[in-house]
Batch of 3 targets.
Target 1
Amino acid sequence: MNVALSDDQGLEGGALLAIVGGEVVRCDRAEGTATLHASTLLHAVTRVQGSAARYSLILFYRQICPAAAHRLVECSVATMDLLYPPEEGSYSCDACGDSRLHRVRRSEPGGASSRCEHRRELEEQGCRSMWHCAAGCEYDLCGVCHDVGLADGVEYVSVR
């Protein structure tokens, strides 16, 4: 969520832009206006010209699926790599925060061969599947947290 703490109208530049439906959309906001969007939305702010300043309060949060009774799907390492491409960052367990064994190496080129090598390495280290929200809200649970029941009451489906 992005809350405008200053008015966009009085600025030269400082516009919030987003890619929506393949087009660039300008989001004009008055002071106190809140803009809520998914973390995956491609967006940016244009450069402010002169000595003016633009102020925003930006809050990041995730929906916790067990509280919302979302269905979790078991995903292999290969599937998680597809859900979270290297250029979009890593993923981690929302219960324990562990991403050590589940993260795609960002220092390597994103080519298929390095990803296949990484996948093989994870499997050799005993990395198991992750449980991912079927509704797409980016809630992930590692196999260990799943096994100890940190998301009891959630429907699980195994997909490879």
Target 2
Amino acid sequence: MRLGSQRVHACQTCRRRKIKCDNKLPNCSQCTRLNKKCPGSTEGLIFIHSVNESQPQQQRQLVRQLRGDQTNVLTIPPSIGSGAHEVVSRLAVEIGSYHLSPWTPHPWFLSIPRLALSADFQSRMLLPFQAMKVAFRALPENDASLKAAAYQYYSSGLERHQAQLHQLVPWQRHQHLASILNLLLMSMALLEFEMMAPLATDSWFPHAYGALGLLEQVGPQGCQESPFFEIFWQLRFFMSYVTLSTRKMSFLGSQTWMEIPFLHREKTEFDHVIDTLLVEDNQIIKRETLGLETIEQRQMSDVNLGHGQGANFKCARPGHIADFERIVRVLVNVRELVSASASDCNPKRQESLSTAILADSKHLMSQHSLPFNVGLQVTAAASLVAQYAPNSLQKKDAAQLYADWRGRFVLIG
């Protein structure tokens, strides 16, 4: 399966020689024939880094390393100069491109190039970013050597992240906020890697709760501004699954956190759906109940579907709009299924909801091109059907689909 609309490009050696590359891993046939180490193919957007002789040798060496054999773990120096910003930005945009969709257009990765981050922090940030990049390369064949390299990057990043957790200075507000941002960015990067290469079932939950604790210190007002808003938005998306899976509400389900961060931004239908997933079953939301009929009526009235990009979304291809409607149905029906299971209502209703969720999920997963985060979302929906469906046959069907789909988006074994 091809992730998103990403292209697979020839390795750098073949591009430089202008010859055809078969993209074999770990070495393409041309590099094998020439007895050269293959730098590997690249996926997604290509970013050209022009190296000139005025750059420090250390920066040029770092760029060559990142272009080189990614199965070898880098020893990143503690201070790597201004060249690190370009490398980190390139990786952030490349990884973020896997997560773009018309209804989720705010991957927090894309805020990285705009931030003034210290060289020391960027050297730490390279570790989980490299882990994700190598993991994406390992996904098609579940390549064991690439997977091992990805885990080494992740382990090194986690170790350095944990060392930073003890260096906050709470009484110095500006320094404190900057430190929180650094920790949040690292937590989110480690979380994203754990989602695509879990060490155990739901092993990303601790990273999510850790990021949630840091976000609480920023406060709902602080989350009105970028990049905290993008992190907040993505964490809401992740915590909606945690809430449904554990039936435990976080502070993100409070009225304050559902309203204040969005005061200067238009909340979309997708955001409203996430609201309903974050609250307890018995909590009354001071707004219109959002069901499928309400969503359809608002769509007919040209209400924004994309995040502050309603006009662009309305001009999207019909297939994108249809996929958006299916994603919304999946989320709303999962919410209803979990609520119905908690209240022991009519099993026929639960069976009907489970059938609808699996039907929409199968259609989405049959697409030739699907954003990575949407694939994870649909896979999570199948997991919840396996957990809450009243019918043993539906549970079995959902569990099998979950296992099949998980192998397409997650490194396993």
Target 3
Amino acid sequence: MSSSKPDASKSAPPTETVFTVGARDHTSEEAPRLAHTLKPRHLSMIALGGIIGAGLLVASSSAIEAAGPGVLISYGLAGVVIVLVMRMLGEMASASPDTGSFSAYATKFIGPWAGLSIGWLYWWFWVVTVGVEATAASRIITKYVDMPQWVPALVLTLFFLGLNLVSVKSFGEMEFWFAGIKIVAISLFIVFGVLLLAHVIPSEHQGVDYAAEGGLLPNGIEGVFIALLPVIFSMFGAEVATVAAGESENPAHAVRKAVNTVVWRIMLFYIGSIAIIVLLLPHSAVEVGVSPFVSALTYVGIPGTDTIMDIVVLTAMLSTLNASLYTASRMAFSLAGRGEAPRSFRRVNGHNTPYVAILASASVGLISVVLNYAMPKAVFNLLVNSTGAVAIFVWLVIAVSELRSRKMLAAQGIVPGRDRGTIRMWGFPWITWLVIISLVALLVYMTFNRDPEIRVQLYLSLVVAGVSVVAGVIVQRRQHRSAAAEQVDLGAAAADEIAETADPGLYAEDLAEAEADAAERHADDAADRHDR
């Protein structure tokens, strides 16, 4: 893909806009930036359909089985958390759109250790997801085509690797059509369900007898909380729109649109579709691991929907695979720009695509694909479980970053919600604190959950997070020591300059003042070099 400007590939890449509150940036004026060629239609569809995946289309069966109709409460609670977290992220991103998204803001508002640790943790989540989605998609394909499962998994991963290497516009175009298919499918399901419930279309069953099914909360309020975990994890990924916004033609506008539409996206695609399911299908008829969309339509006497739904689910998996590789590579690119990842991840090709970061991310994804077939229980399951609580960690970091950002933004003269184009978090700081407390409570709930698999997910995620934090602290301390050593060198250089240039007839106080001026001048020069 070429840039929207014909001569873009011939000229030196423009500098990357960097928001400098409380952070050192390791890019220079000559450092390459990413292409800003994602169009509004790309961002709109990524925002609309980006969060629709197998978590809604298939994994929602476990939530419905656990809570029955009460699953709507679970989706409502999870939806509120997502809306609030996206609002916080939108406040920071609208003031300073950044491909590193929340990781960059964590560096600026909490500290380099936080940005590094959550950035690498997020990268780890998405590279593992590459292997998970490629494997899951291959299982659907091999239902219809006789071949070993590793073949389509490998082909799909290599295909999306090539697509992402070509250009960001290629990624956006593919996501545009993937998201379109998902949105049309969910919308048609909702319309069809409404017609069934209104008896416009005849069916074998007319609604659900909730009294015979144990009422609206067949498993009590505990069922609602059991369902909350798979529900809330199925919504993870809404923040990808803010990552992609950094490569759009109008980043600030793209961020505002993604944040302002998240409410009705969740209401329509999640709560709306699940409401249709629980109104059509008794929760006792739900099969865990089988798409409840297929189960609902089959239950009311409409056969042949499993093949159609396989196509929709396959589309969702391919969309997630594509987005996983994109998101992981952009996070690696951002980390490298802040000196928190290998500098080579900053390299871009002629289309301003970070090819080294893409290749590195795809390589780990391919390794996870191989491990799934070579050692599925011994290794691959451990990798998958190690990402189980990443969503909560990411949302916590977003909330804490937003909590600390207000004073630093004000110091730069930026007032969220007042300045043109910015978003303001509602009820600050009380609602922000409420979200933080809720997320911590969710981690505590996972700790004491009766399901051992959930506890394993938390513990493994904590191990990976702990390693990331330790690495972040070590890197931050090295940066501080380097800065301190540089200051010592500056002081010595200033003293040498005074000794060489000072007039012996100066009074002592004048000499001291001259020395201070020289030291300050050297410090300013060093700061300029560091910022570049």
